[in-house]
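In this notebook, the sequence line spells out the residues, with the fold written below as integer tokens. This is how one looks.
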Amino acid sequence: MTGTRSLSLPITLAIVMIVLLIVLTVGWVLLSVFGALESAELSVLYWVLLPLGATFILLLLVGVVIYLILTIKAINLSRRQSNFIDSVTHELKSPIASMKLYLQTLSRHCVSQEEQAAFYRSMLEDLDRLDRLIDQMLAAGRSESPLPPGQAEEVDLSNLLRDCAASVCMSYRVPVESVNFELEPCVVRAPRMDLDVIFRNLLDNAVKYAAPQPQVDVLLRRDARGNVVVRIADNGRGIPPKMRRKIFGRFVRLGSELEREKRGTGLGLYIVRNLLRRLKGKIRLLDRQSGSGAVFEVTLPAR
């Protein structure tokens, strides 16, 4: 459905431009004929058609500019989709190759109990990685659909943030103490799964793109209107200003996929933005008051 909508505008615009070009060509011929005649009525018609033709030329130029903009957007989307395919291929191939190597080692060689336990633990981590990738794909599709009725529930956001942080820290093998909490008791009425996806993605990005010694700050409070505000700040390199409006798009990641060290698909922030729209919330990117890093602020409506 999205692809059909994206194609309908350029096709309609191209048809309109062709019609305008035909009208201009016919009008130019008529102006040439009328301009050579001496009749007063034909002279009046000539001066009527002249500004009309100029207006059509202006519309044609505007159409060309719009068509050029749409073409550039299509090229950028194609590039991001290519990066997305590269990243997903890598995300699928790496854990599968790792599990295959462990299974071949276990089947062909005698290994100690400690090594077997380490192999099984590594394979479970690879399976978790694949499971997260599949969940990311499913969440991307679900985030574009309206919120189904009857799924909202009372969620203690402080406990949910701690659970998400513990899971992310375990995934990246960093101490839980790397995340500093400043939490007020807040209850939000929303689907727990949506909230879990939102804050797990934000915390995942914060830990993933933090400095070698990660330091993530999580603030939970209520504003003057009673809305719930969550700020997640990291100590990484931050996001360039020219990319700050683009990072919430589909398949957007910094740099080239073939040169990137951090794993991911470029869908995390896109999913976060769409899910927050379903919950009547919003997200914005702020600068840190001191030091480097990025700060994402999520606002959810009061219960």
About this structure: The beta strands are 153-156, 179-183, 187-190, 216-222, 228-233, 282-287, 294-300.
